[in-house]
Amino acid sequence: MELFPVLYSENPFEEALTFRIEGASNKDVKALYQLFVKNLVAFVYYETNYHYNHLFYEFENQEPLIEQDELYERFFKGMLLTQIEYQIAISPILSFCAHEATCYHALSTEDCNAYMGFIDTHKAVFRRIDALVDTSSKLSRGEEFMEYLHSNHFVYPYLNIVQLGSVLEDFFMNVCKMLSCSYLAYFDERDFFTANLTKEFLQVRLAMKLDLLEDQNQLELVRYSYKWLTYLFNDFGMTYDIKDALMPAATPFLFEAVMEQFAAYFSFNKTLLAASKDFPKYIFSSYESYLLFDTLAKGLYAKVAISYVYRFLFEKGLIVVKDTPFREWYNAQDYPIHLTSATETLQKSRSTDREQFVTIIANLLDVTL
Q1: E strand or H helix at 120, and its extent?
Q2: How many Å apart are CA 173 and CA 190, to the nearest integer?
Q3: Treating both helix axes as pointing N-terminal to C-terminal, what angle do 287-297 and 352-364 enclose, rounded to 10 degrees?
Q4: What pLDDT, on the 0 to 100 scale, is given for residue 1?
Q5: DSSP 265-289
Q6: How far apart are the first and last CA of the chain?
Q7: Residue 271, Cα to own-chain centre: how many angstroms?
Q8: Of 3, 30, 86, 229, which one has the greatest count of Cβ atoms within 10 A?
């Protein structure tokens, strides 16, 4: 907020209900928002802190009660947490909205209608902010990423996988914080969609230690890191029902633009790779097409999925042989499954998920379809 409000010097919840909303009917949206946050901060300071015997602390330093002006600043930084009904600290916005609805449900004045109208109008955004702030305050889960890589039989020398997993988790949480701050400032994603993530991408790249890995291992590590982040964003979006943007967006999924930036940042020089790698030229039209198929096939365990990739790449001219010689070559490789019968047709094997997955990996590898 541009203007820092005059905060309460005494507990306003001990006053008449009309005290905290006086003049609300004459305020614009910005001023109503300022009033709402002022009351929220007072709620955290006077009600949750004192009511729960000063349980609101700095988590690292265990310092006592935080003053209202700092709580106000923390709100707009996406860092306001307090204990209300649980043993853990959470973002208190929706709980405060419920508190206000209980307080003012029987009051029908112009000020009350304006104040509660503001809350009702923005409750969907407040729900998103609560979820994002709570998520961005969680601890890292680097061990889960390590288990994910190990389950796919990927072990990289000189690489601390747990540390990389923690850095990827930090990246995820920083993105959540950026989104929450955009909602806190504008009630939409305008800042989020224009955010510069170069610094965050650099931290991920440093943790990957790509210079110590062979080219193919670099690609595999980037691919699995991409899939892990995609999982984190999808899991968050489905858990909290935060999948679509509130403002018009170029992509259907809220976090898709972030993953597109990730793919672009970690794209590799395909010309250099092609010059340094051999590939079966009688099967594939180029090294890029072989790289795309090989990257996909290593993680596919269903015949229908392999069928779709083969048929799709054949239609695009990236695979140049028909089904029988393709299967003979495929079965001679060390892929997870064998093809014991003809591949399904493109029509029978096509699905939206497979189309999107192939497109994402192609973009990640900088392969033109």
Answers
A1: helix 110-121
A2: 18
A3: 130
A4: 45
A5: HT---HHHHHHH----TTTBSSHHH
A6: 47
A7: 32
A8: 229
> Residue 13 carries which side chain, given as an amino acid letter?
F
Distance CA 309, CA 312 (A): 5
Nearest partner of 71 among 110, 44, 91, 103, judged by Cα: 44
Instruction: Report the C-alpha gap between 308 and 300 in whole angstroms.
Output: 11
The helix/strand/coil state of 82 is strand
CA distances from 123 to 98, 126, 144, 322, 333 (A): 10, 5, 34, 57, 55
Give CA–CA dist 307/345, Å, rounded: 7
CB-CB contact of 298 with 335 (8 Å)? yes
Local structure of 186: helix, strand or coil? helix
**Range with lowest mean pLDDT among 210-214, 254-258, 283-287:** 210-214
5-10 contacts at long range (C-beta below 8 A, 24 or more positions apart): 5/34, 5/35, 5/37, 5/38, 5/72, 7/38, 7/41, 7/42, 7/68, 7/69, 7/72, 8/38, 8/42, 8/46, 8/68
Question: For residue 102, what are its two tokens?
Answer: 């209980």
Question: Hey, CA dihedral for 53, 54, 59, 60, is it positive or negative?
Answer: negative
The tally of CA atoms less than 13 A away on the side-chain side of residue 7 is 17
> What pTM does this model have?
0.68
> Residues 191, 183: contact at Cβ < 8 Å?
no
Task: Write the pLDDT tens digit of every residue in 23-64.
Answer: 999 999 999 999 999 999 999 888 775 433 334 444 444 444
